[in-house]
Every structure is written in C-alpha cells, then in structure tokens.
Input
Amino acid sequence: MGAVDQLGPADVAAFGSKVAANVARGVRVPDRVTRELLIALLAGGHVLIEDYPGVGKTALARALAASVEAEVARVQCTSDMLPADLVGANVFNQRDGRFEFRPGPVFANVVLVDEINRASAKTQSGLLECMQERRVTVDGTTHELARPFLVLATQNPVEFEGTYALPQAQLDRFMVRLSLGYPSADDESAMLAEHVAGDRVLELTPVSTVAEIVAIQDAVTRVHASESLRRYIVALLEHTRGDPRTELGGSPRAGLMLLRAAVVEASLAGRDHVLPDDVQTLAGSVLAHRLLLAPGVPDSSRGEIVDSALAAVSAL
Output
C-alpha cells in the first residue's frame, strides 16, 4: 500500500476484503454484518450488537479484534462495576509520594464491552465522554484515547433480570446497531463441524495494523458527498420527525452518522463518491435505534418507520 496521501477507494476496498475474509475464518455471520462492523471502524463510530444468546455476538467482536494488530481490551460488565473500572483512576504511589494515573481498558484501540446492559447507569455514563470525545477526564486532567478507537458492545434483548436499559443518550453514541439472527441450516451445520475441535477465533492472526487503519480512515474523508445527497439525508430525518409513531425522530447527529457511514460504504465499494443507494443500505442500522417512539408504539416499529421514510422520500 502506498503513502497515506496516495490511498484511494481501491485501497479501502482491498482493506475491507482482507479483513472481512479473516473474520469469516473465525465466525460465520452474514456478510452485511461484517461490512457494517468495518464501516463503523473506518468511520470512527461504535457498534452495538444485540441479539439472542448463543448466536455469536461476542465471537464476532472477538474475530474483528483478532484481525487487527492493535491493543485490544475486553470488559465483562457486572452490576457492581464502577466508572473507574472502565476509564481508570488516580492511584497514590507511596514510593514517589504522589498520585499517578492508572489507565482503564478504554485506552485500548478495540474495546469489547460484553453485556453492556448489565452495567449500572452510572457506569454506562462513564463511556459517554470516551465514545463521543475520544478522551477521558479524571480529577480535572484530560487523557486522550488511542486512534483508532472502537467500542464493540453486546447485549441480550430478551433477558432483563439484573440489567439496566441503555438510555437514549447512550444509544445515540453507537453508529450502528446490528443483529445477527440465527444462521441457515447449512451454515449452522458447517459451524458445528468447524468448531468441534475448539474456538476458531483463537486461531486468527492480525491482517491489519494500526497505522494502516489510520491511513484508511484519513482516505475515506476524501470521498465526495454532493449537496443533493446531503439534502436527501436531511429529508429522511425530517420524515422520521414527522412520523406520528415517533416522539423524537432522527437528530442532526443521526444524519452526520449516516453520512459518515455512507462515505465508507462508497469507499468499500471502490467509489470516490457517495450514492443514494449507500444511504438507503445503511439507514436502518444507523437510524432505527436512535428514534424515540411514541407511547404504546412497539419497538418493532423502528425499522418500519425508517422504511416508510425511504419509500416516501425521493433521492434529489
């Protein structure tokens, strides 16, 4: 791969192909799910993986982390976890007679937060500054986080005992929310054969470096998004705001996240410009979890609201 200023869509597409192929060696998930993980990584976003127990949420996050030659940390959330367990704390050094900062797991490049909804609201809030500002403030001192920085959080949507629902402000920090679903019969049979000897994720080796990811992140910012495409995104947001099934529709931040994701989608396809198709492909994953529904509206309506907006708004 050439110098940073020479990277183009072809390089981004090649990067995406090799990382996706490596992830597929460790876990069987739909190609679209892996692609949206890569989109979040390259767009500087974060990912919430939400699905039933045992479908491979944690394995998928581990497979992506194992594909990147970067510092990786895993946090198993519990109800007694404190914010300092995530971000770190100042500890008194008796030998030197002063306090020194001991960084927490969020200072890694890829942070796997397993069962995030088992952490208390106070601990969940400790992630807010990290995910949005890419920095941590402890006792008045600000510490910058690594680049790239990706939070991969998982949660089980069907088990509520001992859990704390993620507040809307926390959900809004995730660029995409993914669901894996059950595999097909053929894929599940193949998975049983592949994993009978052990965990295949442990056999994965990195295929990318931190420097390469940072270079790719810089390259995707040069992809062109026209004025008409930006207005198309705004029109989609306005339609969700006017839908009677929502109290609050897509926010300006939701539009920014959708645009950033669409830019990477175009790059992974080898293009130097964004198409309405890129926006339409990602609208459900980026917008649905950000909608605040009106009382009595079932959670399953989120996708329908986004689909209604896509059907009603024509690309400009």
